[in-house]
């Protein structure tokens, strides 16, 4: 039976329905799930639709691994803004005595995690974070700027029963680096394209001004600044909740923040601006399953045509 | 109060221009203060005056001008007494 899970009773009810249909697979940790083949196929097809939309843009495609240099995450200011979301990879670095101690602690059911030390690797929180130092290291930004097509698994520590709030998820991202006019024009183009793409998939959506989930009291000031300057918009789709729709795409203008931070300059010394559009791949797939049901063969013909041709 | 707030802003290297050259109405963000700079300023002001900005004042607008900031600090210090 093709069972669209709507109206949604609760995010957890949607999550359990996805488990029951074996679309997501439990691991025992909230926000950390296996994906069924059909779920992966939907993501692949959605990505193809995104790629088709951007085919004339001639973006440079780069895939970084889901880990990045910890020192770059620190320099990017991520821990100033989002310490609650950051993840750093730790590993055992002891000797034979320490190893015996570690094994004993595990056998006794004690907390052994203090036996590990931080490595040089942090988990990537957004696909674009590893890009900026790479661009800066390549020398001056050419006239006309640059455009990148990125994809990465990303980590954010926010365990939740909402299936649309995973701890490890994939983000497809286009990043434009150039003058203020070039990058804001890029963002305006994708605001239109994004809405058109999601509408073609038969999904209800709205675009709204937004802010990042900055930490604590200081974060309130940063969020206010971001909103007042119109730096972030999100495309929202009801996924696990009708009252609180989920941000499936985001459209961000960084001004010259990353340009100044990493030293991305034009040949004349002017600091480059940047903007990005991010696609939450799992979130968009979940939106499709939510609105069209769990059996993709029964999805509306026009939606299937966009995804499967 | 006014001088103490100005002294804090001047001592923090938040601006590429001297604070003495700015009026109370000039926009500090236009003068080069970053969003992170405004957060640092908020924490320094709270420590100096032993106050806590309420959520309603944790906005970009509060830190946009010296005049607005002085007025907010004046109000919060007054509430302590």
Summarize the structure in words.
The complex is a heterodimer of chains A (309) and B (81). Chain A is an alpha+beta fold and 309 residues long. Chain A folds into 2 domains: 11-87 and 125-308, Bira Bifunctional Protein, Domain 2 (BirA Bifunctional Protein, domain 2, 2-Layer Sandwich); 89-123, no CATH class. In chain A, 38% of the residues lie in helices and 25% in strands. Chain A has 11 helices and 12 strands. Chain A has helices at 11-20, 37-53, 70-75, 78-81, 96-107, 131-137, 180-200, 216-228, 257-262, 281-292, 301-308; strands at residues 24-29, 32-35, 60-62, 67-69, 88-92, 116-123, 146-155, 168-178, 206-209, 232-237, 246-253, 273-280. In chain A, helix 2 crosses helix 10 (281-292). The longest helix of chain A has 21 residues, at 180-200. Chain A starts with 10 loop residues before the first helix and ends with a helix. Chain B is an all-alpha fold and 81 residues long. Chain B contains 3 helices and no strands. Chain B starts with a helix and ends with a helix. The mean pLDDT of chain B is 93. Chain A binds chain B through residues 77, 80, 217-218, 220-222, 224-226, 228-229, 257, and chain B through 34-36, 38-39, 42-43, 53, 55, 58-63.
